[in-house]
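Hey,

Quick one before I head out. I ran the complex with NAI overnight. Inputs first:
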Amino acid sequence: MIFERMEHEDYEQLVFCHDKTSGLKAIIAIHDTTLGPALGGCRMWDYASEEEAIDDVLRLAKGMTYKNAAAGLNLGGGKTVIIGKPDQKSEFMFRALGRYVNSLNGRYITAEDVNTTVQDMDYIYEETPYVTGISESYGSSGNPSPKTAYGVYISMKRTAKEAFGDDSLKGKKIAVQGVGNVAYTMCEYIHDEGAELIVTDINEDSVQRAVDNFGAQAVGIDEIYSVDADIFAPCALGGILNDETIPQLKVKAVCGSSNNQLKEIAKHSKMLQDHGIVYAPDFVVNAGGVINVADELQGYNEERATKKIEEMYDQIGKIFDIAKRENITTAEAADRLAEERIEGYKNVSSTFSLHNKSLIETRKNK
Ligand SMILES: NC(=O)C1=CN([C@@H]2O[C@H](COP(=O)(O)OP(=O)(O)OC[C@H]3O[C@@H](n4cnc5c(N)ncnc54)[C@H](O)[C@@H]3O)[C@@H](O)[C@H]2O)C=CC1
Ligand SMILES: CC(C)CC(=O)C(=O)O
């Protein structure tokens, strides 16, 4: 059944990693390496079953292929999941994972994701160079969340332009679901521009921090969908744009950081469009973090990375334009943009070049 799915959705590789001493149980999925090595974060989650973990890593790895392609990076898509509760973490668990990552010889490069930190990446770095988002003391880029937040803010401005004819967020009401690492910094940018915030989170301290620092209005977990607001920013979970929630939305636009927001991509992106809601595709909006960590591969330069994140404004605009021109949803337009870049490169890479690590180059060095 797994090979059937891999064949159907063009996955390249699925690696199961086990280390008895540290308790590591991890799965690395590599979806597509046409554009370059697969780059994607490492998530730690207490999955209810192994099937759920496999499904998650496959979905997330494919998402990274599209994210990296649409962001204009020369990188493919992959992801790691570690099965377990975050309080079961240890130095040796991440070092064991680092050795597995190293064994892939550069086909996959890891980074932070939900429940993993810069410290965890530093442990992986003890075992392999194929890790990003490591400490700034190594001349590296550190925690990607603030850059992801900046990218969401830039994308939100372009989305506001599409929905309201003006990219200013001043006076706009923004409903934020989940005020964690990314969303807190995103709220800072939005608040500084003069927007009003309505927030919810399952963590009361996170809500209180936004109330105290940004004068945000706090609402209940289920209330966030139906509040009177201009833009909805999902920054917590996947699958939250669905048959039950979309009819409740009063906003004119959706733009947030969480991955896989649409429960069913085709159905729910069309449903948003039919409700007159501008949807900014999640994997384009939340690419700031991966753009930032990818810059490490050239020797990290914050100015260069930030400039590339600011280019997301035009990239989102391009997606809105394609959707209008082709009469498709913005989700379909984003997929098309990513797929065309991957297909285009297949033609370029069919031409022999010594730039690729060729057999002849290897022999020359012997
Ligand atoms: N950190 C990064 O650089 C990137 C993050 N993302 C995505 O953005 C989202 C947020 O990421 P982070 O801020 O790093 O994670 P986080 O774990 O710091 O924040 C998520 C927040 O959502 C809250 N939450 C969980 N369930 C909730 C619910 N049912 N209702 C309301 N709030 C709920 C949590 O309490 C937490 O405060 C995730 O989906 C992640 O995959 C995507 C790209 C990069
Ligand atoms: C920092 C990124 C590599 C995190 C990631 O995997 C993502 O963008 O979803």
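The mean pLDDT is 95.

Talk tomorrow,
K.
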